Amino acid sequence: MGIWSVFEGPFVSLLVGAALAYTAFSFLGEYRKLFMANPKSAMSVEALMLAVTSSGGPGYLAAFLLAGSVLCFLATAFTLLFNLSSYFGLLN
After folding, report:
1. Nearest to 81 by CA among 20, 21, 9, 2
2. What's the chain's average pLDDT?
3. Are the C-beta atoms of residues 20 and 66 closer than 8 Å to each other?
4. Three-class SS of the chain
């Protein structure tokens, strides 16, 4: 088993999660403007949820895409942990 086979699945899942997050944040133009103006004040869930609810349909789609990207990142972490432990012989 080559080392690439350990990282292949998590790499693809990470790319999908990043694409979903990028698409979600592109729907949230107001949040992006707020974040670029003052990053420290926009780093809260409250500011993100306000941007989601104030933008209507695209905001709800963005929230759905963000949830999907979080699930992809969690799946990446789990798969990478499982693959590495299997590669190094911790799981038999």
Report:
1. 9
2. 82
3. yes
4. CCHHHHHHHHHHHHHHHHHHHHHHHHHCHHHHHHHHHCCCCCCCHHHHHHHHHHCCHHHHHHHHHHHHHHHHHHHHHHHHHHHHHHHCCCCC
Taking the CB of residue 89, how many other CB atoms lie within 10 A of it? Answer: 7
pLDDT of residue 36: 80
Provide the residue type at 8 as one letter. E
Residue type, 13: S
Residue 70: its pLDDT value, please?
A: 92
Q: How far apart are CA 66 and CA 59, in angstroms?
A: 10
The residue type of 14 is L
What is the SS3 assignment for 43? coil
| Residue listed under structure tokens 């990478």 | 80
Distances (CA, A) of 59 to 2, 35, 40, 45, 66: 42, 16, 22, 14, 10
